[in-house]
Each structure stands twice: as C-alpha cells, then as structure tokens.
Write a structure and sequence with these properties.
The chain is α/β, with parallel strands linked by helices and about 280 residues long. It has helices at about 10-20, 55-70, 80-85, 95-100, 105-110, 130-135, 165-175, 200-215, 230-240, 250-260, and strands at about 5, 25-30, 40-45, 85-90, 115-120, 140, 175-180, 190, 195-200, 220-225, 240-245, 265, 270-275. A five-stranded mixed β-sheet has the order 6-5-7-8-9. The protein has a four-stranded mixed β-sheet with strand order 11-10-12-13. Strands 1-4 form a two-stranded parallel sheet. It is globular. It starts with a strand and ends in a 10-residue tail after the last strand. Belongs to the phosphohexose mutase family.
Length: about 280
Amino acid sequence: IKVYLCPKATPTPVISYGILAKQAGGAIIITASHNPATWNGFKVKSEHGSSASPDATAEIEKHISHTLATEKINKLPLAQALEQGLVEYLDLAPIYLNHLTKLIDLDGLRQARLKIVVDPMYGAGAGYFKMLLGDGATEIIEINNERNPLFPGIQPEPIAANLAKLSATVKKQGASVGLATDGDADRIGIIDEKGMFLTPLQVFALLCLYLLEIRSERGLIVKTITTTSMVYRLGEIFNVPVRETAVGFKYVAPIMLAENALIGGEESGGYGFRGHMPERDGI
C-alpha cells in the first residue's frame, strides 16, 4: 500500500482534503485534537475526507485487538520504505491552498486592508492564514504561533474561556477580527472587533446567511441537535431545507455527501462546505 507521509505538522483539514486530491483510501492523523498533549491518539479519515464512521472505527478496534493478541506486527525501517517507494513524503499545503483559491476571493481579502489577529494556539494551523492572505494590504498578526505540542499555559480549544489573550490583542491592535484554531485546526473560534467572543451558534448562522444572501447559493443545511435553531428561520426566509442530526460531525458528513448539502455545522465550532469537503475545517 502506497503511503504519503507529511514531513511536518499538518492541520487535520489539510490532510482531509489531501485524501480527495490524491484519491487516497483514507488517512491516519496523529493528534490530541483540542485536548492536552497527554491525550495524543489518532483520527481515522475515510476516502471522502470525512471522519470514519462508527462502524468503521469499531471494525478497526476489533482488528487491532485481534492482531495484537495473535499476530506478529510486520515492520519496515522508514529509510527502506522510502527507497522502495512504499512511502513518499508529501507537503499537502500547496495543494490545499491552491484549492482554496478556487473557492474564495483571496485577492479581494488581501486588498481589503483588514487587520486580522490569528491565534493557532501553538498548533498545526500556525502560518496558514499568512500563507492565504499575506502579501497584500491586509495585515495578519499571529500570537501563540510557535509549534509546541505541550500547548504551554493554554488549553488548545477555541472557546471563550481560552481566548482572553486573543481578545486583548484584537482590542489593542484595533483589529477587524480575531481568529483562533484548535490544536489540529479543524475548529475555529471568532472574536469580533470589540473583543467579544462570537459563539459557534452565531458563527454558523452567519456562515449560512453569507452563503444564502451574499453568494446566492441554495441547498440543504445540516446541523447537530445542539446547534442553533436560528438556521431554521434562515431556511424559512430563503426556502431551503434544514436537517438535524445527533451530536458529532460524523453524523453530519454522511448527509452532506448523500444530499450534496450546502453547509454542515456543529456546536463546537466545526463547519464543512459544499465544493470543499464534508468535514470540519477551521481554516
């Protein structure tokens, strides 16, 4: 089985899109997500770029237990695997960023003279907003942008309780907005120009409004049961259906795939979009 290996810390959504770009069978991502480093584990992604289904992960767990108990694990030194072409280093950032240029008016954002403060929370998202929006009139200011898997002094989850520094920096810099991504950058938290935290429920409603009103797009909206009911009102105004699922994006993604949904969202700050992939992307 051919394996592409990222040579550096890479955001989960970048790897998820890489599955689609390389037509891979899936991915394994070593991460503690928004949890402390001691929680380090792995995420399994499907061939669609979305999280593996509960049935798939149950099957994996069964095989792991069986293999550890009854079989010898075959191993191959990395240098030998590289020499044989079984493993290939692949930086997915250029592939991902090029894809985003087709979805978003990046030139317009670069020339908008915005001041944006970004807090990657010492995680894998460091540098991505500068790569996307740098080299223009818009200014990107990063804090907590050194890669540090111990996440010193913070919990890498973009919720109000963890974003006091981001809020203070937005106010001090007179910035337009503050953006925070969690440890593996598949979730986002937003601070407005006054230093106030926007709840994920507000952000999801605003994203839906943007797609429906500004971009004049139409399609199914998928939300978890704990996500805002504001989208039902938007569904009525713009005559689009809204579907509700159990908690967890793993329940949102299958509906997005099956029905080509416009957007899917959950209460923890994870959002996926049609034309991109049926998975959370904090970038």
